[in-house]
TrEMBL record:
Family matches, as Gene3D superfamilies: Aminomethyltransferase beta-barrel domains, D-Amino Acid Oxidase, subunit A, domain 2, FAD/NAD(P)-binding domain, Probable tRNA modification gtpase trme, domain 1
Domain FAD dependent oxidoreductase central: residue ranges: 374-425
Domain FAD dependent oxidoreductase: 5-367
Pfam families: DAO, FAO_M, GCV_T
SUPFAM superfamilies reported in the protein's UniProt record: FAD-linked reductases, C-terminal domain (SSF54373), FAD/NAD(P)-binding domain (SSF51905), Folate-binding domain (SSF103025)
Full protein name: FAD dependent oxidoreductase
Domain GCVT N-terminal residues, every copy: 428-702
Length: 702
């Protein structure tokens, strides 16, 4: 036996993959427990239709799917293949979907997955049941196909077992044992299992297991309709299970797969059907299996009508069986991977569908064994990415249901989130509403993208209108605000920027260890610097301002930065990290006339020598105490001005009265993005990610 003692909760397609991958890396003191029988445990894996489509706007999700395809193609159980590589076909029945297919083709090309745009005739050649009159174009991915999930589970169980992994069926987890903030084992209805690491791969039961250690998973099981036709005469005599590509008709929220002379029909167009993990029946109570709910025929009516239109041959068949199968949905549609922030050794690999299962197994195995994942960029899947409000039950239920509704929708990167909104409003919110702000959400904050009050600035300016896609959630006012910032002065709401306070007698040494740049400089210094991962990849770019000998303010990119700092705190208590974002606010005052606005409002010297570039000072702007940092993400003269939330509106009003006579405006995020792009300033998550080292990203100077 080698490695720490690991207990994996859940022997579905994720738990089996993790057991296989982690044992292949030499950790063999591993036990996998499941409340159900093996290999069909009764969770989502046991009823999953198995469609694997690799196209995804996320490179990480595509790569996880690609690895799953490659691995499943290599697996079999006594000669039975675990993957039927029949290819995938997405068809478009509207011009908007045709354009979307070209975008998806672009993603696949960028991510290194073969695909091709097909004409309508070529779509019919690939899938002869398709109605030529309904289809405008298609996207064909030859390496897509059907995963035989239960067979894949069995194949991976066999491999792991040969290396010494123990699988225990019919073991219900009653509690996760812990002491002094660390896991010590798992309590089952058949006894306790000692553990140094516990990994929750419980799928739809994940929230219940995570709750045992006080962890709140933003995951909701939702029913999803899957129906099977009786024999389709046009498919008579088909001896192979699948010969046609799996088919997605996303304009109608539908997908299809062969099963000999019948068809499976999956449908996302019905009402959301959420259920809590506690409401799921036990293995012994369920009629079929816990993850299968009764089929609701009325919800399927529109799907059957549309199916007969797209696939006319189905008019000669009937829907003979169906289920409402439970799958896991999250607030942003991405998996939940990583270690609990509060209980050391408790990990989750949740909200993972069959499509990405083997990839997630490999990723989490690398993360556990090596201390980091080298094969995939997992930052967007990290379970610690969420803000506190994003874990509230109301928010989780609403957004999880919304993601079910939108699972096949054409989604724009700036598309506004649904309810609940608004959640977080800055002290400037009322003033921004008065100016006709168009708000989009940023980390829960309502953030203006432009102001209708500036519509008059458009006249006489040369502002190029982007294409239809880029022009969504855009206005020519954006261009006018950007140009005005270059000409006079503008106020920007920067409150959505994450702000952390790092303090204590060990703060300077702590930051020196984690940051690439020298931050232990004189009080008043501000440093643009990077946080790097174990392999030198960029975790984040941040600013660090030294406000006192033992107090630093960090401008961060999100909750993962807070989690990174917290996990690296020294055990001696000499450093404290605190999220100060909710109690503070920030206005960016930028433009060639910025000093003309600010200097008359304060007794402090804001001249070029009085407050140099990348320096900070405490001052009063009118009656408002601020921390002023001479930074500019738009490439103009100016400052980031921070104050407490209770004084935010007063700061806004003070600056506004001084700026208006000089032609100053309030400007939105659209202009901000335009200006920072003109200057070539990088944005983490867009221009650089964990995959890039500083030199590849053009920030080697940091």
């Amino acid at each position: 036996m080698a490695g720490p003692r690991v207990v994996i909760i859940g022997a579905g397609v994720v738990g089996a993959a993790l057991a296989d991958e982690i044992s292949a890396r030499g950790w063999t003191e591993v036990t996998v427990v499941d409340q159900g029988p093996l290999p069909a445990t009764g969770g989502s894996s046991s009823h999953a239709p198995g469609l694997v489509f690799q196209a995804n706007p996320s490179k990480t999700m595509t790569e996880l799917a690609r690895y799953t395809v490659e691995k499943f193609c290599s697996l079999d159980v006594d000669g039975q293949p675990c993957f039927l590589q029949v290819g995938g076909l997405e068809v478009a029945t509207t011009p908007e979907r045709v354009t979307e297919l070209h975008r998806r083709h672009g993603w696949l090309t960028a991510w290194g997955v073969e695909s091709r745009i097909l004409t309508a005739d070529e779509c019919v050649e690939k899938h002869p049941l398709v109605n030529r009159d309904r289809v405008l174009a298609g996207l064909h991915i030859p390496t897509d196909g059907l995963a035989k999930a239960v067979l894949a589970v069995e194949a991976q169980i066999r491999r792991a077992t040969e290396r010494g992994v123990t699988f225990l069926a019919r073991h219900e987890v009653l509690d996760v044992l812990r002491a002094d903030g660390e896991v010590t084992g798992v309590r089952t209805d058949q006894g306790d299992l000692a553990a140094d690491i516990v990994v929750c791969c419980a799928g739809i039961w994940g929230p219940r297991i995570a709750r045992m250690v006080g962890m709140n998973l933003p995951l909701t099981p939702l029913g999803h309709q899957l129906a099977w036709t009786g024999p389709v005469p046009a498919l008579a005599g088909q001896k192979e299970e699948a010969v046609r590509p799996i088919l997605r008709h996303q304009d109608a929220d539908l997908y299809y797969r062969d099963r000999h002379d019948t068809l499976g029909i999956g449908y996302y167009g019905h009402r959301p059907m959420p259920i809590t993990a506690d409401e799921i029946l036990s293995v012994d109570e369920a009629d079929t299996m816990p993850s299968v709910l009764k089929f609701t025929e009325d919800d399927f009516a529109d799907a059957w009508t549309e199916t007969q239109s797209l696939l006319p041959a189905t008019k000669d068949a009937k829907v003979e069986e169906g289920i409402n199968g439970l799958f896991s949905f999250t607030t942003d549609g991405l998996p939940l991977l990583g270690e609990s922030p509060d209980v050391k050794g408790f990990w989750v690999a949740e909200a993972v569908w069959v499509t990405h299962s083997a990839g997630v197994g490999r990723a989490v195995a690398e993360w556990l064994v090596d201390g980091h994942c080298s094969s995939f960029d997992l930052h967007e899947c990290d379970v610690n990415r969420f803000e506190p409000h994003q874990l509230s039950p109301e928010y989780v239920l609403a957004r999880d249901c919304q993601n079910f509704v939108e699972v096949y929708d054409i989604l724009h990167p700036l598309q506004p989130s649904g309810d609940p909104r608004p959640i977080r409003t800055t002290p400037f919110y009322a003033r921004q509403q008065e100016l006709g702000a168009f708000f989009l959400e940023a980390n829960g904050w309502e953030r203006p993208h432009w102001y209708e009050a500036n519509a008059g600035l458009v006249e006489g300016r040369s502002i190029v209108t982007p294409n239809d896609w880029a022009a969504r959630y855009w206005s020519p006012i954006v261009g006018a605000e950007a140009q005005t910032t270059r000409e006079t002065v503008a106020m920007y709401d920067m409150t959505a920027l994450k702000r952390l306070e790092v303090s204590g007698r060990g703060a300077a040494a702590f930051l020196e260890r984690l940051c690439t740049g020298k931050v232990a400089k004189s009080v008043g210094s501000v440093t643009y610097t990077l946080l790097l991962d174990h392999d030198g990849g960029i975790r984040s770019d941040i600013t660090v301002a030294r406000l006192a000998p033992d107090v630093f303010q960090v401008g961060a990119n999100g909750n993962l930065d807070l989690d990174w700092f917290t996990r690296h705190l020294p055990a001696d208590g000499t450093v404290q990290v605190r999220d100060i974002t909710p109690g503070t606010c920030c206005i960016g005052l930028w433009g060639p006339l910025a000093r003309d606005v600010l200097q008359p409002l304060t007794d402090e010297d804001f001249s070029a020598t009085g407050l140099k570039y990348f320096r900070a000072k405490r001052a009063h702007i009118g009656s408002v105490p601020v921390t002023a940092m001479r930074l500019s993400y738009v490439g103009e003269l100016g400052w980031e001005l921070y104050t407490t939330a209770d004084l935010g509106q007063k700061l806004w009003d003070t600056l506004w009265r001084a700026a208006k006579p000089l032609g100053g405006i309030a400007a939105g995020r659209g202009a901000f993005n335009s200006l920072r792009l003109e200057k070539g300033y990088r944005s983490f998550g867009t221009d650089m990610t964990y995959e890039h080292d500083p030199y590849e990203a053009g920030v080697g100077f940091a």
